[in-house]
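FAQ: What does the model actually see?

It sees only this:
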Amino acid sequence: MIKQAIIPLAGQGTRLLPLTSVFAKELLPINGRPGVEYILDECIEAGIKEIIFIISQKKLMIKKYFYSDTFYKNIIKKKKDPKVIEEYKKILKYKKMIKFVYQNKPKGTGDAVLKTKKYIKDKYFLMLLPDDLIMKYNCSKSMISTHKKYKSSVMASMNVDKKTVSRWGIYNLSKKVSKNNFLIKEVVEKPSIKNAPSNKAVIGRYILPKTIFKKLLHQKPGKGGEIHITDAIQSLINENEKFIAHNFAGKYLDCGTMSGFIKSNIEIGKLWNFAW
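And it is asked to produce this:
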């Protein structure tokens, strides 16, 4: 059973400037809640027991957010507001699950994953990218079920408009194994419309094998001088490690761009009406 998840949070968030010049993008409110809390709730509902945040020294406000005991205690002492007490209990619940590791130089998602190597205990672990929100459906929970059934690594997949394939990592699939699951032959980064092997795009949910750390340790930097997780994944696929693309249901939201962040607020506002 998969009990650990990692969440890379060290990115600079340049697509959300000027907001991220002073604020961690993962704490920006989406319908009244920090975006990262939606990811945490997805993990909890999926049965995850420990979550590893990869942050940088420049984003210590994320750690401070979960270690704000004195702030809450002082407010509660002055006024026992039930809503404040409820919020504090929620923060304490998250805090018990979270461990922090550091990636102080932006060397890519692969390098961020490598920082967690000594903390991963089991054969497989979950990784979630915080820019990708999936609402009305627990993608991680569904992927864990797929992993249990096929005893394999799993990556989230979504059908996209063929005209937009050049914006995504696109799966080259070898065969269909069930209604929503496909065996991955290759992951092609941002192909042209003409050369795209499918219209099934990579989304930020991964169940990865612990063996990926060996690949990342010896992996040379790729595009932009960064260590890319997809390169390590492809290396494992080439050695016959089974990876399955899982087509998920639910509503996908990209909150990593300004337009996507605004849209996420609107769409989640339609789904939930938080009263604060």
